[in-house]
Amino acid sequence: MWVEFKCPLCGKDLDDDKTMANFLVCADSSHGPLRFFTGDGCYFTTNEQVAEDLMKKGKRVHIVDPKEFFGNQTINLE
């Protein structure tokens, strides 16, 4: 069964994160890098306002330090 995931903020498709297993990613400029962990349904962001917007929508979210979580990885959606 195939399930298509959409970003809860911009509505675009979440893409498979090639750098981290079990994560989907959206890098829309309106909210910056947003990762979704398929294991437990949590979102990860570096932006407090984005986290607040997700919580208002009833989503579980973690605010992370970009250097620790995202590292020097670049998000390539092509």
The gist of it:
The protein has 78 residues and is α+β, with helices and mostly antiparallel strands.
Question: What topology does this entry show?
Answer:
Layout: E1 15-16, E2 23-26, E3 34-37, E4 42-45, H1 48-56, E5 61-63, H2 66-69
Parallel strand pairs: 4-5
Antiparallel strand pairs: 1-2, 2-3, 3-4
Task: Name its key features.
alpha+beta; 78 residues; 22% strand; 2 helices
Structure report:
The radius of gyration is 12 Å and the shape is globular. The chain contains two helices and five strands; from the N terminus they run E-E-E-E-H-E-H. The protein has a five-stranded mixed sheet with strand order 1-2-3-4-5, with helices on one face. The chain is of the alpha+beta class and 78 residues long. It has helices at 48-56, 66-69, and strands at 15-16, 23-26, 34-37, 42-45, 61-63. The longest helix has 9 residues, at 48-56.
What is the N-to-C succession of helices and strands?
Answer: EEEEHEH
Beta fraction = 15-25%
Instruction: Write down the domain tally.
Output: 1
Task: Look at the helices and sheets and give the structural class.
Answer: alpha+beta
- Strands ordered across the widest β-sheet: 1-2-3-4-5
Total strand count, please?
A: 5
Q: So what's the oligomer here?
A: single chain
Radius of gyration: 12 Å
Distance between the termini: 24 Å
**Mean pLDDT rating:** 85
**Number of helices in the DSSP assignment:** 2
Q: Low-confidence parts, pLDDT < 50 over ≥5 residues? A: none
Shape: globular
Task: Report the helical percentage.
Answer: 10-25%
Largest sheet: 5 strands, mixed
